[in-house]
Amino acid sequence: MIHASAPGKAILLGEHSVVYRGPAIVLAIDLRAHIWAEERGGDGIWIEAPDIGASGHFDSSGRYHPIRGGSERWRSLNPIRVVALEAMRRLEAARGLRIRVESEIPPAEGLGSSAAISVATAAAVGRLLSGENLPKEMVCEIAYEGERIVHGTPSGIDNHVSTYGGALRYERGKGFERFKVEELPLIIGDSGRRRSTGGLVAKVRRLWERHREVVDAIIDAIAQLSEEGYKALREGNLKRLGELMDIDHGLLSALGVSTPELDRMVYAARSAGALGAKLTGAGGGGCIIALVEQPDRGRVAEAIRRVGGRPLRAGFTDIGVEVEEI
Ligand code: MEV
Prior knowledge:
The protein is 43% helix and 25% strand. It has helices at 17-20, 74-91, 113-130, 136-151, 157-164, 197-210, 212-235, 238-254, 260-271, 297-306, and strands at 2-13, 23-39, 45-49, 54-58, 64-68, 97-103, 167-171, 175-179, 186-190, 276-280, 287-291, 310-312, 322-325. The strands form two sheets. Strands 1, 2, 3, 4, 5, 6, 7, 8 and 13 form a nine-stranded mixed β-sheet that branches. The protein has a four-stranded antiparallel β-sheet with strand order 10-11-9-12. A hairpin with a 3-residue loop joins strand 7 and strand 8 (175-179). The structure holds (R)-mevalonate. The site of (R)-mevalonate (MEV) has 13 residues, from helix 1 and helix 6.
Protein backbone atom coordinates (compact mmCIF):
# COMPACT_ATOMS: atom_id res chain seq x y z
CA MET A 1 0.00 0.00 0.00
CA ILE A 2 1.17 3.55 -0.71
CA HIS A 3 0.76 6.43 1.73
CA ALA A 4 1.16 10.03 0.59
CA SER A 5 0.62 13.26 2.45
CA ALA A 6 0.59 16.91 1.40
CA PRO A 7 0.32 20.20 3.32
CA GLY A 8 -2.40 22.84 3.35
CA LYS A 9 -1.70 26.51 2.74
CA ALA A 10 -2.39 29.98 4.04
CA ILE A 11 -2.27 33.15 1.96
CA LEU A 12 -0.11 35.70 3.74
CA LEU A 13 -0.88 38.64 1.43
CA GLY A 14 -2.60 39.31 -1.89
CA GLU A 15 -5.86 37.33 -1.88
CA HIS A 16 -8.47 38.79 -4.24
CA SER A 17 -6.06 41.33 -5.75
CA VAL A 18 -4.17 38.40 -7.32
CA VAL A 19 -7.26 37.59 -9.39
CA TYR A 20 -6.71 40.98 -11.11
CA ARG A 21 -3.03 41.90 -10.75
CA GLY A 22 -0.07 41.92 -8.38
CA PRO A 23 1.45 39.07 -6.39
CA ALA A 24 0.04 36.72 -3.77
CA ILE A 25 2.40 35.43 -1.08
CA VAL A 26 1.45 31.92 -0.03
CA LEU A 27 2.81 29.60 2.67
CA ALA A 28 2.57 25.85 3.17
CA ILE A 29 1.35 25.04 6.69
CA ASP A 30 1.95 21.88 8.67
CA LEU A 31 -1.58 20.53 8.61
CA ARG A 32 -1.64 17.65 6.14
CA ALA A 33 -4.02 15.58 4.01
CA HIS A 34 -3.26 11.84 3.94
CA ILE A 35 -4.08 9.32 1.22
CA TRP A 36 -3.63 5.55 1.28
CA ALA A 37 -3.93 3.81 -2.08
CA GLU A 38 -3.83 0.15 -3.09
CA GLU A 39 -4.95 -2.01 -5.98
CA ARG A 40 -8.25 -3.79 -5.66
CA GLY A 41 -9.74 -6.43 -7.91
CA GLY A 42 -12.74 -5.37 -9.98
CA ASP A 43 -13.64 -2.31 -11.97
CA GLY A 44 -13.64 1.27 -10.77
CA ILE A 45 -12.52 3.15 -7.68
CA TRP A 46 -13.55 2.60 -4.07
CA ILE A 47 -13.08 5.67 -1.88
CA GLU A 48 -13.36 5.88 1.92
CA ALA A 49 -13.51 9.24 3.72
CA PRO A 50 -14.17 8.50 7.40
CA ASP A 51 -13.81 12.22 8.33
CA ILE A 52 -17.07 12.94 6.50
CA GLY A 53 -18.68 9.55 7.19
CA ALA A 54 -18.67 8.56 3.52
CA SER A 55 -17.50 5.64 1.45
CA GLY A 56 -18.57 4.37 -1.91
CA HIS A 57 -17.71 2.88 -5.27
CA PHE A 58 -17.42 4.74 -8.57
CA ASP A 59 -17.92 2.10 -11.26
CA SER A 60 -16.09 2.30 -14.59
CA SER A 61 -18.89 4.38 -16.12
CA GLY A 62 -18.48 6.94 -13.28
CA ARG A 63 -21.72 6.02 -11.46
CA TYR A 64 -21.47 6.35 -7.69
CA HIS A 65 -22.75 3.52 -5.45
CA PRO A 66 -22.74 4.63 -1.79
CA ILE A 67 -21.61 2.13 0.86
CA ARG A 68 -21.68 4.56 3.80
CA GLY A 69 -23.33 8.02 3.75
CA GLY A 70 -25.81 9.28 1.18
CA SER A 71 -25.54 9.29 -2.61
CA GLU A 72 -24.94 13.08 -2.56
CA ARG A 73 -21.48 12.34 -1.12
CA TRP A 74 -20.31 11.59 -4.67
CA ARG A 75 -19.67 15.33 -5.03
CA SER A 76 -17.10 15.40 -2.19
CA LEU A 77 -15.38 12.22 -3.36
CA ASN A 78 -15.45 12.91 -7.10
CA PRO A 79 -12.28 15.10 -7.22
CA ILE A 80 -10.31 12.14 -5.82
CA ARG A 81 -11.70 9.89 -8.57
CA VAL A 82 -10.90 12.50 -11.25
CA VAL A 83 -7.30 12.84 -10.03
CA ALA A 84 -6.85 9.04 -9.88
CA LEU A 85 -8.24 8.69 -13.44
CA GLU A 86 -5.94 11.46 -14.69
CA ALA A 87 -2.95 9.61 -13.19
CA MET A 88 -4.10 6.38 -14.91
CA ARG A 89 -4.55 8.21 -18.22
CA ARG A 90 -1.08 9.74 -18.12
CA LEU A 91 0.58 6.51 -17.04
CA GLU A 92 -1.53 4.41 -19.44
CA ALA A 93 -2.39 2.05 -16.59
CA ALA A 94 -6.03 1.34 -15.74
CA ARG A 95 -6.59 -0.56 -12.46
CA GLY A 96 -9.25 -1.10 -9.82
CA LEU A 97 -8.23 1.04 -6.83
CA ARG A 98 -9.06 1.46 -3.18
CA ILE A 99 -8.31 4.93 -1.79
CA ARG A 100 -8.68 6.14 1.78
CA VAL A 101 -8.51 9.83 2.66
CA GLU A 102 -8.04 11.53 6.03
CA SER A 103 -7.24 15.20 6.50
CA GLU A 104 -6.10 17.48 9.32
CA ILE A 105 -7.05 20.55 7.25
CA PRO A 106 -10.51 22.03 7.96
CA PRO A 107 -12.39 21.83 4.63
CA ALA A 108 -13.81 24.83 2.74
CA GLU A 109 -12.07 27.37 4.97
CA GLY A 110 -9.37 28.74 2.69
CA LEU A 111 -6.57 26.46 3.92
CA GLY A 112 -6.18 24.48 0.71
CA SER A 113 -7.81 21.27 1.91
CA SER A 114 -9.04 20.15 -1.52
CA ALA A 115 -5.68 20.82 -3.18
CA ALA A 116 -3.77 18.91 -0.48
CA ILE A 117 -6.10 15.92 -1.00
CA SER A 118 -5.65 16.11 -4.79
CA VAL A 119 -1.85 16.41 -4.51
CA ALA A 120 -1.58 13.46 -2.11
CA THR A 121 -3.92 11.41 -4.34
CA ALA A 122 -1.87 12.17 -7.47
CA ALA A 123 1.37 11.23 -5.69
CA ALA A 124 0.00 8.03 -4.10
CA VAL A 125 -1.76 6.72 -7.21
CA GLY A 126 1.19 7.72 -9.42
CA ARG A 127 3.61 5.74 -7.24
CA LEU A 128 1.23 2.76 -7.02
CA LEU A 129 0.83 2.54 -10.79
CA SER A 130 4.39 3.29 -11.88
CA GLY A 131 6.39 1.84 -8.96
CA GLU A 132 8.29 5.13 -8.57
CA ASN A 133 7.68 8.65 -7.35
CA LEU A 134 6.33 10.85 -10.12
CA PRO A 135 8.19 14.11 -10.75
CA LYS A 136 6.66 16.86 -8.60
CA GLU A 137 5.78 18.85 -11.68
CA MET A 138 3.59 15.99 -12.89
CA VAL A 139 1.99 15.51 -9.45
CA CYS A 140 1.11 19.20 -9.45
CA GLU A 141 -0.41 19.06 -12.94
CA ILE A 142 -2.46 15.94 -12.19
CA ALA A 143 -3.72 17.49 -8.94
CA TYR A 144 -4.86 20.58 -10.83
CA GLU A 145 -7.51 18.40 -12.54
CA GLY A 146 -9.08 17.83 -9.10
CA GLU A 147 -8.91 21.54 -8.30
CA ARG A 148 -10.76 22.33 -11.53
CA ILE A 149 -13.64 20.14 -10.38
CA VAL A 150 -13.83 21.94 -7.03
CA HIS A 151 -13.07 25.54 -8.01
CA GLY A 152 -13.66 26.00 -11.77
CA THR A 153 -10.50 27.65 -13.10
CA PRO A 154 -8.37 28.37 -10.05
CA SER A 155 -4.99 30.10 -10.20
CA GLY A 156 -3.16 26.90 -9.27
CA ILE A 157 -1.67 28.50 -6.14
CA ASP A 158 -3.00 25.80 -3.84
CA ASN A 159 -1.80 22.72 -5.72
CA HIS A 160 1.62 24.35 -6.25
CA VAL A 161 2.27 25.18 -2.61
CA SER A 162 0.90 21.83 -1.50
CA THR A 163 3.21 19.96 -3.90
CA TYR A 164 6.41 21.88 -3.20
CA GLY A 165 5.90 23.17 0.36
CA GLY A 166 7.63 26.35 1.55
CA ALA A 167 6.79 29.88 0.48
CA LEU A 168 5.57 30.89 -2.97
CA ARG A 169 5.06 34.13 -4.75
CA TYR A 170 2.51 33.93 -7.55
CA GLU A 171 1.50 36.56 -10.06
CA ARG A 172 -0.72 36.21 -13.10
CA GLY A 173 1.33 36.09 -16.28
CA LYS A 174 4.57 35.72 -14.28
CA GLY A 175 3.87 32.35 -12.70
CA PHE A 176 5.32 30.88 -9.51
CA GLU A 177 8.54 31.57 -7.67
CA ARG A 178 9.50 29.50 -4.62
CA PHE A 179 11.62 31.43 -2.14
CA LYS A 180 13.39 30.78 1.13
CA VAL A 181 11.88 31.78 4.47
CA GLU A 182 13.85 31.09 7.63
CA GLU A 183 11.15 31.17 10.25
CA LEU A 184 7.65 32.52 10.37
CA PRO A 185 5.76 32.25 13.65
CA LEU A 186 2.05 31.98 12.83
CA ILE A 187 -1.21 31.27 14.57
CA ILE A 188 -4.31 30.54 12.53
CA GLY A 189 -7.73 31.33 13.98
CA ASP A 190 -10.54 29.18 12.60
CA SER A 191 -14.09 30.60 12.55
CA GLY A 192 -15.51 27.15 11.74
CA ARG A 193 -17.64 28.74 9.02
CA ARG A 194 -17.39 27.19 5.55
CA ARG A 195 -17.62 29.34 2.46
CA SER A 196 -17.22 29.20 -1.29
CA THR A 197 -14.15 30.80 -2.86
CA GLY A 198 -15.95 31.17 -6.21
CA GLY A 199 -18.88 32.99 -4.56
CA LEU A 200 -16.56 35.49 -2.84
CA VAL A 201 -14.50 36.13 -5.98
CA ALA A 202 -17.82 36.83 -7.77
CA LYS A 203 -18.91 39.18 -4.96
CA VAL A 204 -15.75 41.28 -5.37
CA ARG A 205 -16.27 41.29 -9.14
CA ARG A 206 -19.82 42.66 -8.68
CA LEU A 207 -18.50 45.40 -6.38
CA TRP A 208 -15.90 46.27 -9.03
CA GLU A 209 -18.62 46.48 -11.68
CA ARG A 210 -20.54 49.01 -9.57
CA HIS A 211 -17.55 51.12 -8.40
CA ARG A 212 -14.74 50.43 -10.84
CA GLU A 213 -12.39 53.28 -9.98
CA VAL A 214 -12.74 52.89 -6.21
CA VAL A 215 -12.31 49.10 -6.28
CA ASP A 216 -9.40 49.39 -8.72
CA ALA A 217 -7.67 51.72 -6.25
CA ILE A 218 -8.15 49.18 -3.42
CA ILE A 219 -6.80 46.37 -5.60
CA ASP A 220 -3.80 48.50 -6.55
CA ALA A 221 -3.13 49.20 -2.86
CA ILE A 222 -3.27 45.47 -2.00
CA ALA A 223 -0.98 44.67 -4.93
CA GLN A 224 1.48 47.31 -3.70
CA LEU A 225 1.46 46.10 -0.09
CA SER A 226 1.89 42.47 -1.19
CA GLU A 227 5.00 43.51 -3.08
CA GLU A 228 6.32 45.33 -0.01
CA GLY A 229 5.36 42.43 2.26
CA TYR A 230 7.28 40.06 0.02
CA LYS A 231 10.39 42.20 0.48
CA ALA A 232 9.84 42.48 4.26
CA LEU A 233 9.48 38.70 4.51
CA ARG A 234 12.67 38.08 2.54
CA GLU A 235 14.51 40.55 4.78
CA GLY A 236 13.07 38.93 7.92
CA ASN A 237 11.46 42.25 8.94
CA LEU A 238 8.47 40.79 10.80
CA LYS A 239 7.36 44.08 12.35
CA ARG A 240 6.93 45.67 8.93
CA LEU A 241 5.28 42.52 7.59
CA GLY A 242 2.78 42.60 10.48
CA GLU A 243 1.83 46.20 9.76
CA LEU A 244 1.26 45.39 6.12
CA MET A 245 -0.96 42.45 7.14
CA ASP A 246 -3.06 44.84 9.26
CA ILE A 247 -3.48 47.25 6.35
CA ASP A 248 -4.38 44.32 4.07
CA HIS A 249 -7.17 43.22 6.41
CA GLY A 250 -8.65 46.74 6.30
CA LEU A 251 -8.59 46.72 2.50
CA LEU A 252 -10.12 43.24 2.31
CA SER A 253 -12.90 44.46 4.65
CA ALA A 254 -13.42 47.37 2.26
CA LEU A 255 -13.90 44.79 -0.52
CA GLY A 256 -16.68 43.27 1.59
CA VAL A 257 -15.13 39.87 2.31
CA SER A 258 -14.57 40.10 6.06
CA THR A 259 -17.18 39.04 8.63
CA PRO A 260 -17.85 40.02 12.26
CA GLU A 261 -16.29 36.70 13.42
CA LEU A 262 -13.12 37.31 11.40
CA ASP A 263 -12.90 40.92 12.60
CA ARG A 264 -13.29 39.83 16.23
CA MET A 265 -10.44 37.31 15.91
CA VAL A 266 -8.21 39.83 14.11
CA TYR A 267 -8.70 42.52 16.78
CA ALA A 268 -8.35 40.03 19.64
CA ALA A 269 -5.06 38.73 18.20
CA ARG A 270 -3.67 42.23 17.75
CA SER A 271 -4.65 43.32 21.29
CA ALA A 272 -2.95 40.21 22.70
CA GLY A 273 0.34 41.14 21.05
CA ALA A 274 0.28 39.81 17.46
CA LEU A 275 2.59 41.76 15.14
CA GLY A 276 -0.17 41.66 12.54
CA ALA A 277 -3.42 39.82 11.80
CA LYS A 278 -5.73 39.50 8.81
CA LEU A 279 -8.24 37.18 7.22
CA THR A 280 -6.63 34.57 4.98
CA GLY A 281 -8.07 33.13 1.76
CA ALA A 282 -11.28 34.30 0.18
CA GLY A 283 -12.93 35.50 3.46
CA GLY A 284 -16.66 35.27 4.16
CA GLY A 285 -15.83 32.80 6.96
CA GLY A 286 -12.83 30.51 7.09
CA CYS A 287 -9.75 31.69 8.94
CA ILE A 288 -7.49 34.51 10.04
CA ILE A 289 -3.71 34.40 10.15
CA ALA A 290 -1.71 36.18 12.85
CA LEU A 291 2.01 36.79 13.01
CA VAL A 292 2.98 36.12 16.62
CA GLU A 293 6.38 36.02 18.27
CA GLN A 294 7.10 33.16 20.66
CA PRO A 295 6.47 34.90 24.03
CA ASP A 296 2.99 36.07 22.92
CA ARG A 297 1.74 32.81 21.40
CA GLY A 298 -0.21 31.54 24.42
CA ARG A 299 -1.88 34.91 24.98
CA VAL A 300 -2.89 35.31 21.31
CA ALA A 301 -4.26 31.76 21.11
CA GLU A 302 -6.31 32.39 24.26
CA ALA A 303 -7.61 35.72 22.91
CA ILE A 304 -8.79 34.02 19.71
CA ARG A 305 -10.54 31.34 21.77
CA ARG A 306 -12.25 33.95 23.97
CA VAL A 307 -13.96 35.54 20.96
CA GLY A 308 -15.25 32.17 19.75
CA GLY A 309 -12.48 31.13 17.34
CA ARG A 310 -10.36 27.97 17.33
CA PRO A 311 -6.62 28.67 17.39
CA LEU A 312 -4.62 26.28 15.20
CA ARG A 313 -0.93 26.17 15.97
CA ALA A 314 -0.15 25.37 12.38
CA GLY A 315 3.33 26.54 11.59
CA PHE A 316 4.96 27.26 8.29
CA THR A 317 6.50 24.17 6.66
CA ASP A 318 9.06 23.58 3.93
CA ILE A 319 7.89 20.01 3.43
CA GLY A 320 5.70 19.46 0.37
CA VAL A 321 4.21 16.18 -0.81
CA GLU A 322 5.75 13.03 0.66
CA VAL A 323 5.24 9.43 -0.48
CA GLU A 324 6.11 6.07 1.13
CA GLU A 325 5.36 2.41 0.60
CA ILE A 326 3.97 0.82 3.75
C1 MEV B 1 -8.57 32.17 -2.40
O1 MEV B 1 -7.81 31.27 -1.61
C2 MEV B 1 -7.72 33.26 -2.99
C3 MEV B 1 -8.45 34.18 -3.95
O2 MEV B 1 -7.53 35.22 -4.31
C4 MEV B 1 -8.93 33.44 -5.17
C5 MEV B 1 -7.81 32.95 -6.09
O3 MEV B 1 -6.72 33.50 -6.09
O4 MEV B 1 -8.07 31.99 -6.87
C6 MEV B 1 -9.63 34.85 -3.27
